[in-house]
């Protein structure tokens, strides 16, 4: 059982819940989905549709803006898709020099 727990908890950075109103958009401002968790290394996006999820294949690099309308805050980051499980998309933050 301990081996299974270690495999599940292999993240370098803990992920934290984000406001239920936080959304992610792409470079063109198109809605990707809601951001559920984020941490020092990445975040989880729940795609708004199957078509969006399919377009976000592992390995794809893109620029994402996270908007929290309640706080009128937005942040733009470069990311790489690390995994896709149905509508759940895990992305890793990357530096602009690695694009």
Structural account:
This protein is mostly beta strands and 99 residues long. It has a single domain (2-98), classed as predicted glycosyltransferase like domains (Thrombin, subunit H, Beta Barrel). Helices cover 13% and strands 49% of the residues. The protein contains two helices and seven strands, in the order H-E-E-E-E-H-E-E-E. The protein has helices spanning 2-8, 50-55; strands spanning 15-17, 23-25, 31-39, 42-47, 61-68, 73-85, 88-94. A six-stranded antiparallel beta barrel has the order 2-3-4-7-6-5. A hairpin with a 4-residue loop joins strand 5 (61-68) and strand 6 (73-85). The longest helix is centred in the N-terminal third of the chain and has 7 residues, at 2-8. 20% of the residues are buried. The model is unreliable at 1-7 (pLDDT under 50).
Provide a compact summary of the structure:
13% of the residues lie in helices and 49% in strands.
Name its key features.
Thrombin, subunit H; 99 residues; 7 strands; six-stranded antiparallel beta barrel; mainly beta
**Which series of helices and strands comes N to C?**
HEEEEHEEE
Strand order of the largest sheet: 2-3-4-7-6-5
Per DSSP, the total helix count is: 2
Question: What's the quaternary structure here?
Answer: single chain
Determine the mean pLDDT: 86
**Can you tell me the residue ranges where pLDDT is under 50 for at least 5 consecutive residues?**
1-7
Query: Shape from CA axes?
Result: globular
Distance between the termini: 38 Å
* CATH architecture title: Beta Barrel
CATH level-four homologous superfamily name: predicted glycosyltransferase like domains
Strand content: over 45%
């Amino acid at each position: 059982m301990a081996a299974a727990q270690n495999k599940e908890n292999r993240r370098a950075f803990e992920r934290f819940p984000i406001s239920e109103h936080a959304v992610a958009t792409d470079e063109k401002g198109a809605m990707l989905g809601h951001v559920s968790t984020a941490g020092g290394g990445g975040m989880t996006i729940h795609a708004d549709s199957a078509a969006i999820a399919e377009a976000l294949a592992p390995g794809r690099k893109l620029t994402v803006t996270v908007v929290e309308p309640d706080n009128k805050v937005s942040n733009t980051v470069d990311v790489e898709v690390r995994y896709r499980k149905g509508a759940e998309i895990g992305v890793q933050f990357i530096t602009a020099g690695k694009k």
